[in-house]
Write a structure and sequence with these properties.
alpha+beta, Aminopeptidase, 2 domains, seven-stranded mixed β-sheet, 10 helices, 14 strands, 27% strand
Length: 300
């Protein structure tokens, strides 16, 4: 099977391969692959019993391949992707894998691939218990922000459903309009991803939550199970001027949706300093992730 555009119908064969791998990386859910498909022009193929994903980096057009997922031969799947890169005349770059997979690649390919840890791609993992209780001195600031939100007046948290989905869509439009008008262009980079997640919320089997203050949506969040012990959060948006909205949204989503899981994966920071600072403030367990590159000249 050659690489093709990812469609909702592909969930039937892709989801079992992702589940068979049990990876902790945030890339390994069908929902994640689908909502980012337009921004990264993601395509999928099946090599034996392995899922292969090809994407293109926005801005540079660089081809990137995701470490294969499934129950088949990893080396065979990686070779399939290497051949695809050669046919495109592009350098081969494999991403999204943790230390265990890095060791397997090194054993299988030796010096053919140069493997490096990339800090901007590390995932932020947190214990569900920690984000539920926010106990101890290290979470004192978070508790204070939440208290200010509660003190402001009437609020409620609701699971995201088809009935209140329209509130999230309306809030997202306001959120992005405000950032566009303020010139914060970096905040607009995931607009299509968020709209895609909201549009296909039910079809992708997502869960989510909506935080209301005085009857108006002040924030919303979207995620899904990653594996048997980890939940992954794909989207989290709140109005920054509403003090405590972000930590309250985070806490309530964990309390309502993640109590059957041990960990929360809140994805990467993409090297964005502000995002890194915000995610580090919750005292994560970092999932180190690697990139493997084949050193060869690009052909034109």
């Amino acid at each position: 099977m050659d690489f093709k555009e990812i469609e909702l119908a592909d969930r039937e064969w892709i989801a079992p391969l992702l589940a068979a791998s049990g990876f902790q990386g945030c890339d390994y859910t069908f929902g994640n692959l689908y909502i980012w498909k337009d921004l990264y022009r993601q395509q999928v193929a099946k090599a034996g019993d392995m899922l292969c994903v090809r994407s293109r980096k926005p801005g540079t057009g660089e081809y990137l391949y995701l470490f294969p997922a499934g129950s088949g031969d990893v080396k065979e799947a990686v070779e399939y992707m290497r051949q695809d890169a050669r046919q495109l005349g592009e350098p081969f770059c494999l991403r999204g894998f943790a230390k265990e997979e890095a060791d397997k690649l090194a054993q299988a390919f030796g010096e053919e691939l140069v493997i490096e840890s990339v800090r901007a791609e590390w995932d932020y993992l947190y214990r569900v218990e920690d984000l539920t209780l926010l106990a101890g001195k290290k979470y004192h600031g978070k508790r204070n922000h939440i208290a200010r939100f509660e003190d402001a007046g009437e609020w409620r948290f609701e699971p995201l459903t088809k009935e209140n989905l329209k509130d999230c869509q309306a809030m997202a439009k306001v959120w992005y309009t405000e950032h566009a008008e303020s010139g914060n262009l970096s905040a607009l980079s995931d607009r299509g991803v968020v709209y895609n997640a909201l549009k296909n919320f039910e079809s992708l089997g997502f869960t989510g939550g909506v935080l209301y203050q005085f009857g108006q949506a002040a924030g919303f969040t979207i995620g899904e199970p990653l594996n048997k012990d980890t939940y992954v959060v794909h989207v989290e948006k709140a109005f920054a001027e509403v003090q405590g909205a972000y930590p309250m949204l985070n806490r309530e989503y964990v309390r309502h949706m993640m109590q059957d899981y041990t960990y929360v994966n809140r994805e990467e920071d993409d090297g964005m300093e502000g995002l890194r600072k915000a995610k580090e403030s919750y005292h994560p367990i970092m999932l180190e992730k690697f990139v493997a590159k084949e050193q060869r000249e690009k052909k034109f």
